[in-house]
Recover the amino acids of this structure.
């Protein structure tokens, strides 16, 4: 009996345990081999040697910036898109003229001067001695080519829609340094519009947008590791002042707290778009970002088709309460769609304090006249449009319900929100109050009114023929007359149309490490000029 | 085994096809991407041209047919967002996720087998209670919260690890893997423990002990082999679920994987990339399912005989 004991423990060949042990071992062995192979084979795609982090070492020679998202393209004619523009504009590609974000004045860049020789003709002198990153000289022919490519081609560039509103331009080089641009109608702000056209060399594709462009800027593209980082190198042949940093490197993190942590930890020098809860006095700075939030009311649908109801919504909103409690004081109550600094801003318009009693009276009056004020209004807000957007929508819902209206909230992603934001808008959506955020980075009210206020504007629900005429007239004016005309339009819109219930002029938050100096301005969110950043010691590396 | 394999392939291929076709059709119900990609001023002609160029003007069935034909030729179209080949983008992102998933599961399985077995060996002992409590906690912690806490504690406060990123040595792996690991690890410890408790009290274990088998042999030679089957099944499901977890990890830590690519493609209505990503993921899950079934069948011959037709 004893002699059989060892066999009974499982060592005996042919025992029931034996056939199942080999597969288990085999499985474990295969699992280890497969896992190791997978990790090894794909290893080179992710893990490299060194431990400086994606943004690079804190060697003082590389300016390290962490963005909210990877730019889909660096195509210059798409630089009116925030994610593209923040890298491209004035770093890689430059325009003929640039707008000073603080004063609003136009300054020469690749053009040294310009004049209006007739109401529809402008002549520009281009800067001599400028070379593209590939060594080719910049001439007026390149400028004419770039304008034609961005505005007249079939590329469907965003700058064409957002800035030129589909107008075609004539652009020709009279000689190596003279450019003539013609418009179909007089356009007093053509130089401002052209500040959005980035210059590319002749020969750049006009059939497809380019992913990595050649420009004249102080930096050129050194390396783009898709999904990981974009590296720029200083252009040593740059025609202007030499930037302080020999290199710049962009990485992206979707989470604000991680971006803030990278600044605190010293892994990055500048972090874009921080949420208020991630800001601290040592590492972040607030700046006006020219964005304004408002409810756009669909005046085609009852009960929003009654101006008393629309006015009541404006009166019901506690703007200061929302900016203080939900936006951490990083916003100012708004009374119009553009902030101070934009041509056309009306300083006489102030945000009214909440007056729920007056709002209730207006709603009751409308109800007495048969307006169906109990019809539910859909308040549509966009996810992540600004910090605490959903809480803001809830506060608005509560305040509107308090004055006798019925509001339900619908949160949408960008694509869905765009369906309500842009024409053609859904026809069977019922009464919609769309929470919008409008940024006027161009600095002129025309870019706002042509989109949001004219009756058939791409982002407008309705309007009046009178207001449309006033906007068209104002668009042909310049100087003080232009300012006054647009300021009066904003006041008239609030009184006679009331398509918008304004909420707040927003502010952005930028994370800045102690290692660098940079003063953000109203354009920073869309155009972070690397040449304006210096090491803390002020020395050029 | 061949019959078993054939049946498994057929039954696993059905969900694969359903998922790929379902995502194709559902994506188109979410609206046209034209507004996202054309300027505000785009004319009706430009919109129509854009739609025609990308085939969005065709009936969904025609688009589906074109997609299937393209996929058979390994042509997945171009990304609307970046202009790059969709297949190329997906193949570039996939290894990063594969790495995370593979390493995570290896650690999860090894750790769970060890801790689950030790906990089961003395049920209700302090060690068992501690392991059970910690594993239940781990299985319940939201990965998003865990990731952010990891960044703040180990990245910022203790400065032991980088906050995020992929460029570096082993240290860049720690937080992403820990985040991805926490839930499968917690679940697996409980599964292994439960299976081991049952196995260790089974008659064959008592028989082995009565015949004088050593404790190590009883635990790892007898009980664990039988406890492996349920653990393996759960591990397979958890591995498949890692793609969901990868979205959080990749978004927070800047890991250039397929989870983040898929989410971006959904938000940007980048149909070609979304379809390519779903197809590759579905095929991988399909292969993984077959692999799990094969392992399962090798471990338990009864499975081979009861495979569904």
């Amino acid at each position: 009996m004893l002699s059989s004991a060892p066999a009974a423990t499982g060592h005996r060949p042919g025992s029931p345990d034996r056939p199942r042990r080999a597969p288990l071992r085999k499985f474990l062995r295969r699992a280890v081999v497969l896992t190791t192979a997978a990790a090894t084979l794909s290893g080179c795609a992710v893990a490299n040697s060194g431990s400086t982090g994606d943004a690079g070492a804190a060697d003082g020679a590389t300016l390290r910036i962490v963005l909210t998202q990877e730019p889909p393209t660096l195509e210059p004619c798409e630089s009116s898109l925030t994610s593209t523009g923040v890298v491209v504009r004035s770093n890689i590609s430059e325009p003929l003229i640039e707008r000073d974000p603080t004063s609003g004045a136009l300054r020469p860049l690749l053009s040294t001067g310009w004049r209006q020789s007739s109401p529809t003709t402008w002549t520009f002198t281009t800067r001599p001695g400028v070379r593209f990153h590939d060594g080719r000289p910049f001439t007026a022919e390149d400028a004419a080519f770039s304008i034609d490519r961005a505005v007249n081609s079939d590329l469907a560039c965003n700058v064409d829609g957002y800035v030129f509103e589909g107008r075609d331009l004539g652009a020709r080089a009279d000689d190596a340094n003279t450019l003539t641009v013609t418009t179909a109608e007089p356009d007093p702000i053509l130089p401002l519009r052209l500040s959005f056209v980035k210059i590319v060399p002749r020969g750049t594709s006009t059939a497809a947008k380019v992913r990595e462009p050649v420009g004249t800027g102080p930096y050129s593209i050194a390396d783009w590791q898709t999904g990981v980082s974009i590296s720029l190198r200083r252009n040593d042949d740059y025609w202007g002042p030499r930037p302080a940093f020999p290199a710049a490197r962009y990485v992206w993190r979707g989470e604000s707290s991680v971006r803030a942590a990278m600044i605190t930890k010293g892994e990055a020098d500048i972090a874009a778009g921080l949420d208020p809860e991630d800001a601290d006095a040592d590492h972040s700075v607030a700046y006006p970002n020219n964005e304004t939030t408002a409810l756009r009311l669909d005046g085609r649908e009852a009960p929003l088709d009654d101006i008393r109801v629309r006015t009541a919504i404006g009166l019901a909103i506690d703007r200061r309460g929302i900016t203080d409690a939900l936006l951490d004081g990083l916003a100012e109550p708004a009374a119009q769609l553009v902030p101070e600094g934009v041509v056309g801003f009306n300083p006489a318009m102030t945000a009214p304090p909440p007056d729920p009693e007056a709002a209730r009276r207006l709603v009751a009056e409308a109800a007495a006249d048969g307006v169906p004020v109990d019809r539910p209004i859909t308040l549509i807000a966009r996810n992540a449009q600004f910090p605490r957007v959903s809480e803001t929508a809830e506060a608005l819902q509560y305040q509107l319900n308090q004055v006798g209206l019925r509001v339900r909230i619908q949160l949408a992603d960008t694509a869905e929100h765009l369906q309500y934001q842009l024409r053609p808008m859904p026809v069977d959506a019922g009464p919609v109050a769309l929470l919008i955020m409008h940024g006027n980075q161009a600095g002129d009210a025309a870019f706002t009114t042509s989109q949001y206020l004219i009756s058939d504007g791409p982002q407008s629900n309705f309007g009046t023929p009178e207001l449309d005429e006033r906007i068209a007239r104002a668009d042909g004016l310049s100087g003080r007359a232009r300012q006054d005309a647009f300021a009066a339009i904003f006041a008239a819109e609030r009184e006679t149309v009331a398509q918008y219930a304004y909420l707040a002029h927003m502010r952005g938050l930028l994370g800045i490490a102690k290692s660098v100096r940079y003063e953000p301005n109203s354009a920073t969110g869309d155009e972070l000029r690397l040449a304006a950043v210096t090491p803390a010691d002020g020395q050029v590396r | 085994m061949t019959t078993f394999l054939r049946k498994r392939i057929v039954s696993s291929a059905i969900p694969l096809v359903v998922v790929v076709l379902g995502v194709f059709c559902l994506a188109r119900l979410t609206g046209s991407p034209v507004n996202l990609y054309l300027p505000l001023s785009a004319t009706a002609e430009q919109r129509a041209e854009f739609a025609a160029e990308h085939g969005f003007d065709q009936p969904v069935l025609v688009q589906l047919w074109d997609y299937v034909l393209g996929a058979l030729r390994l042509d997945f179209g171009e990304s609307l967002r970046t202009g790059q080949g969709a297949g190329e983008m997906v193949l570039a992102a996939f290894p990063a996720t594969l790495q995370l998933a593979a390493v995570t599961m290896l650690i999860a399985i090894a750790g769970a087998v060890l801790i689950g077995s030790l906990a089961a060996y003395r049920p209700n002992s302090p060690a068992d209670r501690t392991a059970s409590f910690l594993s239940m906690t781990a299985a319940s912690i939201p990965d998003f919260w865990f990731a952010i806490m990891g960044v703040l504690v180990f990245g910022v406060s203790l400065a032991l690890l980088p906050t995020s990123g992929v460029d570096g040595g082993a240290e860049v792996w720690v937080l992403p893997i820990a985040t991805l690991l926490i839930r499968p690890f917690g679940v697996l410890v409980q599964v292994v423990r439960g299976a081991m408790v049952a196995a260790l009290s089974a008659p064959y274990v008592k028989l082995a002990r009565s015949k004088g088998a050593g404790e190590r042999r009883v635990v790892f030679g007898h009980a664990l082999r039988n406890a492996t089957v349920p653990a393996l099944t759960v591990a397979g499901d958890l591995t498949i679920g890692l793609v969901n977890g990868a979205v959080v990890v990749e978004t927070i830590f800047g890991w250039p994987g397929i989870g983040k690519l898929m989410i971006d493609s959904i938000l940007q209505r980048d149909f070609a990339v979304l379809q390519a990503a779903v197809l590759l993921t579905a095929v991988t899950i399909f292969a993984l399912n077959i692999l799990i079934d094969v392992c399962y069948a090798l471990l338990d011959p009864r499975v081979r005989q009861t495979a569904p037709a």
In short: The first helix of chain B runs from residue 2 to 29. Residues 1-73 of chain B form one domain.
